[in-house]
Write the C-alpha cells for this entry.
Amino acid sequence: MAAIDPLHQFAIERMVTLPTVNLGGVAIDLSITNSVAAMMIAAVAICVFFALSAKGQVVPGRLQTAGESIYGLVDGLTSSMIGHEGKKYFPFVFTLFTFIMFMNLFGLMNLLGLEHLRMFTPTSQVAVTGALALITIGLVIIVGFAKNGLGFFKLFVPSGVPVFILPFLVVIEVISFLVRPITLTLRLFGNMLGGHVVLAIFGSFVAALGAFALSTGGAAYAALIPSALSFFMVVALTALEFIVGFLQAFVFAALACVYLNDVVNLGHGH
Amino acid sequence: MDVTAAKYIGAGLAMLGMIGAGIGLGILFGNYLNGALRNPSAAAGERPMLFLGMALTEALGIFALVIAFIILFVKV
C-alpha cells in the first residue's frame, strides 16, 4: 500500500497573493489563502442565512424556524448560565457559536465530489482556534476587571476553605484559569484535526484495498469486502463529523458562558 | 535507537491517555441512562448538560491525540 499522508489536506495554499504589510517589525502576509477564503465564505453565509430567515411571519416557514431555533439555543444558554445579565453577552456568544459551527460544517463539503474543489476547515488550524480562545478569555478578563475592579482576584480564592491550604489552592486556581485558553484552543483544534485525519485514513483504505483487489485479481478479490466496509465507515464517520462540528461549536459557546458567569456573578449567585 | 523509531513508540504510548477518556465517557453516559430510566420526563432537561460533559471529557482524550501528533510530526 502507498504511504498514507493524512496531513496533506491541512496545507495552506495562497489563492490570491497580496503584499506583505510590516506592522511594527512583524511582517504580516495579507494574501488570501484557502483558510482565509473559507472563513470569508462562512461569514458571508451566516449573514445571508440570517438575513433571509429574519422574516416576521407569525407561522414561520422552515428557514425562519431554523434561524429562530439557533437564536433560541444560544439565548437559552446565556440566560441559564449567566442569568439576567446574559442579554449583554448574547451577541458575542451568538457570533462565536454560529461562526465556529459554520466553519466546522462547511469544512466537510466537496463541490461535486472533486478533490480540488474541497472546502478547507479553518478551525483545524491552531492559529484560528487560538485566536478565538484568546478573544474569549480576553473578554472574560476585561469584563472581570470592569465589573469588579481589583475584586477580580477574589475569583481565585474560593469561600469556605480552611486557611492552611489556601496558598496551594490559590496557585492551583490561577494555573487552572491560565490553562483555560489552552484547553479551549486544543479542544476545538483536536476534534477537527482528528476527525479529518480519520476520514482521510479510512478513505485511503477504500482506495488502497480496492486497487489491490482489482490489480492483483484471483483470490485478492476478497479484499473488496474490507474496502466496502471502510466505505461504510467513511459514511458513518462523516455523519459523526457533522454532529461533532455542531457539538464543538455548542461547547465552545457554553464554556464562554460559564467563564463569563464566573466573572459577572463573582461573589453572588445568579 | 533510531529517532524515527522512538517517535513512533512515543506516539503509541501517548495514545494510552485515551483509556481515561473512554472510561470517563462510559461512566458519564451510564449515569445519564440510569437517571433517564428512573425519571424519563426529566431526561430531556438534562440532555444539554450531558453533551457538555461529553465534550469536556472527550477533550482530554483529544489532548492525548494532539501530543501524539506533536511527537510524530514536529521537526526539531
Summary: Strands of chain A lie at 14-16, 20-23, 26-29, 32-33. Chain A has a mean pLDDT of 87.
